[in-house]
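Record 1 of the preview.
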Amino acid sequence: MKSESLIKPYQQLRSATLARDRGLREKVMSLEEAAKLVRDGDHVGIGGCTMSRTPMAMIWALIRARRKDLTVSRSITSTEGDLLLASGASRHIITSWFSQGIVWGVSKVMRHFTENKLARFEEWSHMSIGLRYRAGAMGIPFMPSRSMIGSDVSKRVGDDFKTMECPFSGDRLVLLPALNPDVALIHVQRCDAYGNAQLDGLQFMDIDMAMAANRVILTTERIVSNDQIRRTPDQTRIPFFTVEAVVEAPIGCAPHECYGVYEPFFTQLDAYAERTAKDALQGCCDYLDEFYYGPKSWADYLAKIGMDEVLDACRRGRSVHND
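->
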């Protein structure tokens, strides 16, 4: 699939925006109900970055719902990319880097799928991914940039890498195609029942992604009152009118981290890396069977990780935030 097929004409984007229910209504639902808002074949944007604020609870629900043929985009992809490929939920991932994390190296699961031509890993520079979401948020088909000129990354993009001569300066510019996800999955520290979301720590590309997407599914550590949101309006980063669903999912990024609430679950991440070290695909599939298809609820998933690990991650998260 080429990026051009993801670009939507302005009038189509405008029509979708006008068709939204922008009323101030409650949107709280379960993970399972929210998963029904994602259709097979959708382009799904994933908020956060690498192991930070990854909406793992929502990804867990989508995989359990047996979604297929999703095109997935994210700034930097971590273990969630492995799980989406191995489960069959996605065969096309657009990102700037694909690794569980620096200490564990490039994803072996991704290598299995791309080297055997079982899936497409579409790699752009990190800045380019951000500008593509920015173009989507602005409602324009592309963003001019100098990013990736002279880079080998541009060669791997292939026909999707297009340039033009600037009509004002004569400079050569790259045309970065817009990213307008059908659905964006974003995890936040808190939001109200209407979908007004507040973020602590780094925002990554989430704000542009929310504005670029046709609809947003928010998972949140806790739902707070609208009065509380209004007391600190400067912290509200995602407005309610972009949001389709709100799901309260405590520890909803596990085993990844959520700034100010909990740090990464390193024991769990090390164990996953060990599973995939010898046989990447089988190790990932075994992990899916144990932690995704086995537990009956997100609470069961957390129980399987273990209360000791949950409490330790929360203790470390509060310590970092307080320092």
